[in-house]
Amino acid sequence: HHMKYHMLTAHGLGQKLVCQICRTYTCANNSMLNSHKKSHSEVRSHACQTCGASYKFSYKLKQHLLKH
């Protein structure tokens, strides 16, 4: 399973899904496509409890929290 996923994502083998919003982003699975679609949204659902800064992606909030 891991090798198949690696081949699809890292080497672009298999079916390509295209973002219907920007039409330039392509990926191998719906999970990656759904994550990418967040970049087009204004929704910032990950907020810092200390200062109120908010982010679209949880990893960005985690990076921010290291600064406090």
Automatic annotation (TrEMBL):
Task: Quote the Gene3D superfamilies the UniProt record gives.
Answer: Classic Zinc Finger
Fetch the PROSITE patterns from UniProt: ZINC_FINGER_C2H2_1 (PS00028), ZINC_FINGER_C2H2_2 (PS50157)
Q: Which UniProt keywords apply?
A: Metal-binding, Zinc, Zinc-finger
Q: Name one GO molecular function term.
A: zinc ion binding
**Which InterPro entries does the entry mention?**
Znf_C2H2_sf, Znf_C2H2_type
Indicate the segments forming the C2H2-type domain, all copies.
46-68
Q: Please state what the protein is called.
A: C2H2-type domain-containing protein
Which species is this record about? Helobdella robusta
Q: Which gene does this sequence derive from? A: 20196084
